[in-house]
Amino acid sequence: MGISWRRLPRLVLFASIIGGLFCNRYAPAQRKVEDKQAEDEKREHEAAPADAGKRVELNLVGKTDTAAGESRRNENIYFNPVDNNALKELNVRLGTTATVVREFLPSRNYFGAEFGNAPSALLAIPAAGGSGFHGRIFASHLNSIFSARSFFQVGDVKPAHENDYGFVLQAPLWKGSRLTFEGNQLKSRGSVNGNVLVPRPDERTPLATDPTTRAIVTRFLDAYPLELPNRTDINPRALNTNAPQSIDTNNGAVRLDQDLSAHDRLYLRYSFTSQDVDAFELVAGQNPITSNKFHTARIGWNREWSDSTLTSLSFGYDRLRSQLNPEENAVGPMVSTSGLETLGPQGNIPIDRAQNLFRYAGQITHLSGPHTLSAGFGLTRRQFNGIETDAHRGFFSFANDFGHDAITNLRLGLPSQFIVSIGNVHRGFRNWDMNFYVGDVWKAGSNLTLDFGLRYEPSPSPYEVNGLNVIPYDCDCNNFAPQFGLAYQLPGRWGVTRAGYGLQYGQIFPVTFQQVRFSPPGSVKIVVMAPDLSDPMRGLTQTGQIPDARPNLYLLDPELAVPYSHQYNLAWEPNWSQVLRFQFGYVGSRSHKLLIMWYLNRAHAVPGIPQTTATINDRRADPYHAEHRWVLNGSDGYFDAARASLVMPQWHGLSANASYWFSKAIDLGSNYTNTAYDNDSRVSRSQSEFETHRDMKGLSSFDQTHALLCAVNYQIPAAPGASWVRRLTSGWEISTVALAKTGMPFTVVSGSDAPGYGNVDGNGNDRVYLIDASVLGRTVGNPDTSRLMLPRTAFGFMQPTEESADLGHNTFRKGGIRNVNAMVSKTWGFGNDMKLTLRAESINLFNTPQFAEPGTELANGNFGQITNTLNDGRTFRFGAQFIW
User: Fold this and answer.
1) Is the pTM of this model over 0.70?
2) Distance set, CA 623 to CA 617, 619, 687, 764 (Å)
3) Nearest-5° angle of CA 567, CA 570, CA 575?
4) 768 with 750: CB under 8 angstroms?
5) What pLDDT sits at residue 548?
6) Three-state SS for 699?
7) Which residues contact 724 (CB under 8 A, 6 or more apart)?
8) For residue 539, is pLDDT > 70?
9) Residue 283 contacts residue 334 (beta carbons within 8 Å)
10) What is the pLDDT of residues 389-405, one digit of tens each?
11) Which of 149, 50, 18 is nearest to 649 (CA)?
């Protein structure tokens, strides 16, 4: 009788716990679990770049990782902080950080770590430090009265402020215990300034003659603000305006550390985070109203069996509830008009999602002579419940078609396409994430250290608990990931050289496999070409079919597997100076089986059928369906980088570090962050369903050739006992960090699939012909010259019967990044245990804009024009912290 994969993880968990306790009852740990974890962290990051791992501090609500040279993100470029979007936004805005991993620890997963992302975190809780009653309180304030205008802003800066405050308190309750309370709130209020493309004064009157159609067009036009374009120097339709936004983020946690005996310690921790975003609406209904609730609970037990053996067992429960709903003034369907701001929110709104994670982990560490042996496991049971939509609100697309431009078609009420999904999309998906690992750090000699590790990460197939859908792919059960490295002490001042290799596995995201909910029969996504705006479902028969409509199919490849990456690096750390530390390194990766969606069953030229938008469904190979959206492991990624770092730890109060990296990242249309879902699937579309790899191969969206990060800190020497003037001016700490990077790539597209613009296959992302090769590879980063750098005359449209044009993917670059942050602070000591610190920092000190890409759609009026920035203007933040 076979064992079901649904039961096997529970059996493995039970066996691992019992086996770990029994087999190590008499084994020889030189340090407690938390000390081992701290040692692992030290080994991993000691010589790593100063900015490595900081990308986990994603700038969702205005928080900024100023130590990494980041400026505040421009909040008017909205993204949903779900489904990997935050990481993608950071990659597109700032690019990546080439990171030489010092050592691949078998307890961690390093998928994506070469780009600067932190490796997977251990479930175990590090020990709470200190004893007795102590804590800290802190507060920071940011106010628009200290902010500079952003580049395109019209008029004065509107009032806005941000307050972040909180506390940490720790006290003993009884013998061997420590109770910790934490709490903080971040309140953001005020106006968001942004740029939108709105109708000109002569474009605000409907042209439709049918009363019903005219009323709908009027509602769409009224969704744009009454203000007329005020940045006509940039674009005839550009409006710089303001809209209110409020963000409330609350965090609270309680933790108990209890020493059960001289060898046992118990950890209990619970935390809760809530975030409510009443988003800005520069046009009516532009962004969803967002509410996130996040609960985490942890139980951990550490046991020191002897001076050389220790074990750790942990259990965790995470619950994330996300609700994203349209704002009350939204027009209903999503309305996309080429050349105007989209009337939103996006088609996947509303979302009502609850995710439960049950996490189990165990680790054994044993010291035996020159060997430090470790073994462990991690199991995560994921429950993914709720409602996910896919154009259930409806979607109208107005394009350059029917002999008119897109805005004229909007006024006439002539959409090129209507998409709507019908059916039940409430589902409950379940799956397991698993890893088992063993490792050894071997001090092979006085000048040689070797480390070995092996991870096993099977990925069982998910399933839908109500039997409404079937996941077609089986368990990906052969995922063995070896890791090894060395550190060799060279003679004299030649220092240390290190080398490492690790095979790292990613994951098939829940939002990837959950797309099966959008397929018939449970849910039907209907595509109507050239619909009637007032009644796009006209022609619905008694059988529920529309003669000129077809449903989309969402299909998962039965051979779908987990993406993986070969990562390797080499570093040399010479010992040339007692004041300066150097590191020279190379990091590379080859990633395979990356997730991508292929859009199949497109329309092609058929003799006797005119090649128009209205005949797209008639020209598909499968006459009963529209697109076949096929999710597969269809992309590879390649990354190579050389990095040089210089660190001066301390010299007469001055410390500094500088890093430069030269890198190149290319892929076949989809990179390591891609979920093959929603926006991810659309940006990775090829022009044709044939020759997909050749068509999409190019620079990755986050590729940057050059990057330089410099940080300097100076501590003005204290002057105790001197005059009050000296005491006031001494002891200050002054810091600055500067970031300079090459801009990321972008692609020029036609902007319409209609005859005369694209191949009329029912899918966007058509590109154009390159007429003037001299423009190829240009950096377009100045609003004053962008149209000259990217002239319309350099490109031409394809003909309807052609499958694709010749311009490549990601062949131009937007402007680079130049940013400087600065900070001053001073700390006063009171007695032995109390400190007061005051801090002031400037973000984007020189108010340098980072320009967004220009208009990339050749068919639209804003082609080649830069109308937005990716960062905000200069601002100041003030903070205070008291520690006792």
Assistant:
1) yes
2) 7, 8, 21, 20
3) 150
4) yes
5) 60
6) strand
7) none
8) no
9) no
10) 888 999 999 999 999 99
11) 50
